[in-house]
Amino acid sequence: MFKNLARASVSVSLKTGLLTAMLALAAGPYFAPQAQAASAAAAPGQRGQPPLKVAFVYVSPIGEAGWTYQHEQGRLAMQQALGDQVASTVVESVAEGADSERVMRDLAAQGNTLIFATSFGYLEPALRVAAVYPDVKFEHAGGYKTAANLGTYNARYYEARYLAGMLAGKASRSGVAGYVAGFPVPEVVQGINAFTLGMREVNPTAQVRVLWLNTWFDPAREREAAQALVNQGADVLTNHSGSPAVAQTAQANFKARGVRVIAYQSDMRGFAPEAQLAAVAHHWGGYYTQVARSVLAGTWKPQAVWGGISQGLVRLEAIDASVPADVQALVEARRKAIVAGTFKLFAAPLVDNEGHLRLARGALDDAAIGTMNWFVQGVVGSVPKP
């Protein structure tokens, strides 16, 4: 091993062209912060016109880190880039299902003409509200259906997950990692599989133990699951859930058991200053700015956007100084190969964790990745049936 909120609504207006095709891999981040600033300065002025009213619906409190926090950072970046051309509203802690539909109807009725629905379970409610308000543009995070006025956007989180798995494989003394997972949707399964494949690239006998929560945000249950995985022998933790609880659990076990964590969604060094190895972090500011600008320009169209490391939507960052230089170089080489398209994560041979050959040659295409509902060899656990 290496050495060692209750629901609220806020409206803000600061005084300070959506994509024309589905994102394609390209050198350098498509949504780079410097590009945001430059394009903001060049954007056609909207002075004298009412600001575009933009609403964001969040499944959990904003907090100080995690899924919702990263979307909130994206909203703030959009505001900074577009200034008084936009006025944004957020509603946090909105449960998936009927609550989210009611909230989105209210936001549309209040004159918001661009609504970001930022949780997987908001898709069907968003589609229903979009049908009632055809002049409102909806963007859904992680969705698999579009409509005339609803587009979807997602990140290839699994790309950075693979790199994180490589770090975990090099760091783990036990060869066992623990993964606290929300719901068994393809996005989560992709991440678990990619993390496992990355771990087994550097340690072919490594195992990843999975515990399902069946919720996105429940700090007490996240903490309980993480501790159970530590008690089962995991000395590296990661998660696909919404709070810092897994990182905090790693920190609580760092001195006694040497447990490390790959943080998810945000850099969580504030919660795991000694235990964090790195963070798989989300960055939405550039994308939100592009979408809002396209609505202002009248060029918005519904699309299914799926970007990754190349577009700057997801990154492996905040790598701890304790990670040896040769390990960092190994991970960086793999990152460059992913960006260049010369390395396919889900490439043959692929065997599932029940011993069945899933892919004999080639690599999985996006359709197969997007509907993934099985675990690769090395995962200890199962994907629950819908």
- The radius of gyration is 21 Å
Residue stretches low in confidence (pLDDT < 50, at least 5 long) are: 1-30, 32-46
The first-level CATH class of the largest domain is given as Alpha Beta
Q: How far apart are the first and last residues' alpha carbons, in Å?
A: 38 Å
The helicity comes to 25-40%
Strand residue percentage: 15-25%
Question: Which terms would index this structure?
Answer:
Rossmann fold, seven-stranded mixed sheet, 12 helices, 20% strand, alpha/beta, single chain, 386 residues
Structure commentary:
- The structure is a single chain.
- The protein is α/β, with parallel strands linked by helices.
- The chain has 2 domains: 9-155 and 283-311, 3-Layer(aba) Sandwich (Rossmann fold), CATH 3.40.50.2300; 158-274 and 317-380, Response regulator (Rossmann fold, 3-Layer(aba) Sandwich).
- The protein is built from 12 helices and 16 strands.
- It has helices at 33-42, 67-82, 98-109, 123-132, 157-171, 186-202, 219-231, 245-252, 254-257, 285-297, 325-340, 366-370, and strands at residues 9-12, 52-57, 86-91, 114-117, 137-141, 150-155, 176-181, 207-212, 236-240, 260-265, 276-282, 304-307, 314-317, 350-351, 357-359, 379-380.
- The strands form 3 sheets. A 7-stranded mixed beta sheet has the order 1-3-2-4-5-6-12, sandwiched between helices. It has a 7-stranded mixed beta sheet with strand order 13-11-10-9-7-8-16, sandwiched between helices.
- The two termini are 38 Å apart.
- Mean pLDDT is 89; it is low at 1-30 and 32-46.
